[in-house]
Predict the structure.
Amino acid sequence: MASIDYSQKIPNNVDLSSDKRLQRALEEWQPNYLEWWNSVGPTDFNANEIYLRTAVSVDSDGWAHFGYVKMPDYRWGIFLEPRNESRTVGFGDHLGEPAWQQVPGEYRNWLRRLIVTQADTEPASVEQQRLLGHTAPSLYDMRNLFQVNVEEGRHLWAMVYLLQSYFGRDGREEADELLQRRSGNPDHPRILGTFNQPCPDWLSFFCFTMFTDRDGKFQLLALAESGFDPLARTCRFMLTEEAHHMFVGQTGVGRVIERTCSVMKEHPGKDPAQFGAFPLELVQRYINFWYSSSTDLYGSEVSSNSANFFAAGLKGRAFEERYDEHKALEGSLKIERFIEGKLAAEEVALRNAMNEVLRGEYLADCQKGIDYWNRITEKHGVEFRLAPHRRFHRKIGDYAAASSTTRATRSARRSGTRRWASGSRPRRTAPSCSR
Ligand SMILES: [Fe+2]
Ligand SMILES: [Fe+2]
C-alpha cells in the first residue's frame, strides 16, 4: 500500500504517479468534475472558508484532517483500505478462490453496472441538496451539509477511480456520463428513483441523510464483500465517512421532534405549527416519503439479478462473516408477497431473495433510529409514536400494486385531522427505479 501522496493534483494512496496513463485520464476528468461542482453543486458559499473534514489516510485512528477550506479547493482524493494479500472470495460460487485484483472478463458488465449505479447516487445527492445552504437552520447545520456534500463528491472520485482504472474506454465514458446526468432532469435523470426526488427543505435533508444515506451504507456493506478486491477496499473506506451522514439525519430529525414536543407541552391542545414547530403528523409524512422511497432502492423482493450478483461473488450480504454458510444454495427466505391482490407468505430460494435479505438488514437499522426518536416523544410524555410501514407508498416490487395505509394516516382519517398544509409533501418528478 502506497502512503498518501498529497503533492499530486489528486491526493491518493494508490500510487497513481506510477501509472501515467491512468493519472492523465483522472487529471483530465478533474476539471470536468470541478465544472460540475461549480454549476450544480452547492449554490454560493464556494468562496467561503468552511471548517471541513478531509480524508488524509485510511488509519482507523486519525484518518481525517479538520481545517478551513473553500469547497472548490477541497482535496478530493482516492483512498483504498490496505490490501490483504491472502483475501479470498467470501461467498457465492467462487467461495475460497483468491480475491480478484482485475475484473473477471465474464462479469465485466455486471460489475460495471454495479459500480456505475453506486457512483451515480453520489453526485445526485449533491445536486438534490444544492440550495439548502441558503435556508440552513444554523451554522452547525450548514457545516454538516457541506461536509456531507464534499464527501459525496469524494465518493464519486472513489468510484470513478475504479471505472477509469479497471474498465478502459468504457469506464472513461461512464465517468463522463456521471457528470452529465442530472437529478430530476426528465431527459437525462439520475439512475435511481430516490435520487431524482427534490430535497427542497431541511426536514427532507434530515430524512434523506437518515434513510437514503443509510441505503448507501447497506449497499456499500454488500459491495465491501465483493470478490473484486479494489471495489471491496474502496467501499470499506467510504463506510468510514458515511457514518457521519446518518448521524446528521438521525439527530436532525431528533431535534425537530424535540422542539415539537416542547411546544406541545407548553401549549397543550394547540397546533404546534402555530408556534413554528412541525406537527408530528407532518414529520411522520416526511418519514413515510423518504423511508418508502429508500426502501424501494433495494429492488424487487424476488430478483434473478441479485441471485446472479451473489453467485458471481460480486455483491454479498452485509456482514457476510456473520453467516455460517456462504453459498446460499440451499436455504430459503419466507417473504410476505403481494400477488393477485393478496398478501401471502412464500418461501423463496435464498439467492433469489438477496434484495430482501439486504432490505431486512436496512430496515432493522432504520428501526434503531426510529426508536431513538420515539424515546424523545416518550421522554416528553407525548403519546405520538413514529411508525413507518414497510409496505406503505412503495413503487417497486410486489407492494407497488398494494394499497397500504400507516397507523398515523388511519388515525388522521378517523379523526378528520389534516394538520399539515396540503402540497407540503415533496413531490415526485421522475419514475422510481431500483437496483
Ligand atoms: Fe456517499
Ligand atoms: Fe452519504
